[in-house]
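FORM 7B: Structural annotation worksheet

SECTION A. Query
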Amino acid sequence: MRRIPEVTIRRLTHYLRCIEFIKETGAKILQSKELASFCSISDSLVRRDLSYFGEFGTKGVGYSIDELEKHIKKILGIDRIKKVGLAGVGNIGSALLKFPLKKNGFHIIAAFDIKKELIGKKINGIPVYHEKEIPRIFKEKGLDIGIIAVPQNVAGEVAEKMIKGGVKGILSFALLQCPVSKKIPIRYIEIAAELEILSYEIEKEG
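SECTION B. Predicted structure
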């Protein structure tokens, strides 16, 4: 299978946001130069990114916005809803439970915590279970993705429970220090790292 650069996948997600915004204006056809201008990148880069996945649009005419949106969603695997389990109902977790992820193709089915006052309750319609229930709930409900929003010192234990439950991919706010199969992709959200990169860009331009 042809390996696609990660930066291309990242840009696809950005293209999708831009396409959704442009679509709201009532536009039906979109040219690569228009998408490029909206996304603040080059026209050739847009065409190159899309060329990894076959032919899109009509030369000299452009792309059907509906069809391009449909193709990108299929490439990203969000043409069907991905079921998600969230561990950790603190500040970050609570915010995620209220965030409208479903419109982006993700549905949080269950949340997990160890606080007695939370277990058995529903937050935004999502039931909260004890963390020890992670393997069972992941298996029973066929959850695809696990989000880890717990402290660093217990993140590894939570990841292991998700793996036992058959998780297919993990998004973590904490660095995981546990053995994880290479077949299970892991993504990290590191705000400090993003700020450090932004700081580098500021200093570079200075």
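SECTION C. Observations
The CA atoms of residues 193 and 199 lie 10 Å apart. The chain has two domains: 6-75, 82-191.

SECTION D. Sign-off
Analyst initials: ____
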